[in-house]
Amino acid sequence: MKYEPIEALLKSASQYFEVFFIQENIKSPIRLVDTRIGLIGFLILVMLSISTFSPNKLFFILFNLFLLIILSKIPVYLYIKRVGLMPLFIFTIMLPQVFLSSLEYALLFTFRVFLAVSFLIVFTLTTPFKEILNTLRFYKIPEILVLTLSFTYSYTYLVFNELYRILVARESRRFNNKSYRKIWNEGGELLGMFFIKVYERGEDIHLARISRGYNHMAYQVKFEKFNLVPNLIFIFYIALITVGWVII
Fold this sequence. Notes:
By secondary structure, the chain is mostly helical. It has a domain of about 130 residues. Helix content is about 75%, strand content about 0%. Helix 2 runs antiparallel to helix 7 and helix 5 packs antiparallel against helix 7. The radius of gyration is 21 Å and the shape is globular.
């Protein structure tokens, strides 16, 4: 049918982002690194990834990304499942730059964002989200920003889950081919229904939180026992990558 490719793409995207934001519990050596140090280290890796268009530096960062995945004992299939469609989405967004600038620029930009997102994926795969929020509070990030991040993380899964359910329900109730004009009109109706249902479900979840004792108060910041050796090894590793990035 005329509209199947578009809806198939939306369904694939909604399923992908549902998986992307699910928290995993992986027993990794990085768990021995204090989250406060780990956050700074991974932010440095992200900054190195997006601070250059040099192919040599980017491939150097890519090598260290794969090395970090191996040392972290993250299952390769799990990493691929998280990052699989991300380069395609990024490059699709950058397609106009192929005509405005060059294909090389679009590819390098996609490569940079891919590396940055990959480091964030590795960090979130090995670090519980609650510890990440506690680390942000430790660094005195304003509480309203921490709460916004927490809500965004909670409701992003809800948004894509609701989109997938609407697409499946619409597909199951469609029996014949239609004109493009009818397709666009129904697409607008679907979009409006989508925002209404997401708003209603989000409101229900928030009310359920309040009924269970949620009161917007900050959580108490607690961290695991500080292990000196793993933290020194991690700091040395980040320093080596930074020096290598500067030299190349």
